[in-house]
User: Which sequence fits this backbone?
């Protein structure tokens, strides 16, 4: 039932046109393309979540990359952030392979579901608050269809804040002041969806050494231990 419901939700997500600015940008990028991908057909549509319908861990990102997910049709796929993410997921037992290059490449996740707070690629990778809020109902419906979720790993501060909004929309309480994002910081209110922070695997973080492979692996190892406990 969960898998069927997720498939039906995906079919509705990929035709969404709620945000005119995002629709215009994602389709412009898909038409013009980057020179390196000039011969490829871009996805150019909203990106649904992906993973194991029985997942206990939600991996929550910001938004698809213009020439990553917006090109390949899968979240965190076809860009360097995804290379870091899936490498870590493979090393920590959440993925069957360390790479994610395109839909249908054989990648399978175990005990993890990956989604973005904003489902369309935004200009300059900066969605507006209205665009973030317009996408929130998709995440709420996804949460309802993933009944075994026990933890959200939030990749960056934007995803952390979006996950707090997701909790509130799902009827889960948030304390005041709101818990602050930090790498390897755990917000555990003892309910269905605690949050675990992780620096986003952007080049800004990985090239500077702010985020290293052992740091990211430690977060996902902690996530695995948390849901198994």
Assistant:
């Amino acid at each position: 039932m969960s898998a069927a419901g997720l498939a039906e939700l995906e079919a509705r997500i990929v035709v969404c046109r709620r945000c005119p600015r995002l629709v215009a940008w994602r389709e412009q990028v898909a038409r013009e393309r980057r020179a390196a991908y000039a011969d490829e057909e871009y996805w150019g549509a909203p990106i649904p979540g992906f993973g194991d319908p029985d997942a206990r861990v939600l991996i929550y990102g910001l938004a698809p990359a213009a020439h990553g997910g917006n090109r390949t049709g899968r979240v965190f796929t076809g860009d360097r952030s995804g290379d870091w993410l899936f490498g870590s997921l493979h090393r920590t037992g959440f993925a069957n392979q360390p790479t994610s290059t395109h839909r249908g490449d054989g990648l399978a996740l175990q005990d993890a579901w990956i989604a973005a707070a904003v489902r369309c690629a935004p200009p300059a990778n900066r969605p507006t608050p209205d665009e973030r809020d317009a996408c929130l109902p998709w995440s709420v419906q996804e949460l309802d269809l993933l009944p075994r979720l026990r933890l959200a790993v939030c990749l960056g501060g934007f995803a952390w804040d979006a996950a707090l909004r997701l909790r509130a929309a799902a009827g889960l309480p948030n304390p005041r002041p709101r818990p602050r994002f930090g790498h390897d910081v755990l917000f555990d209110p003892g309910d269905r969806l605690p949050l675990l922070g992780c620096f986003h695997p952007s080049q800004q973080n990985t090239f500077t050494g702010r985020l290293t492979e052992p740091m990211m692996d430690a977060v996902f190892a902690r996530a695995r231990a948390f849901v198994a406990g």
In short: The beta strands are 50-51, 57-61, 112-116, 151-155, 186-187, 195-198. The helical segments are 2-13, 20-32, 69-72, 80-91, 129-144, 157-169, 203-206, 213-228.
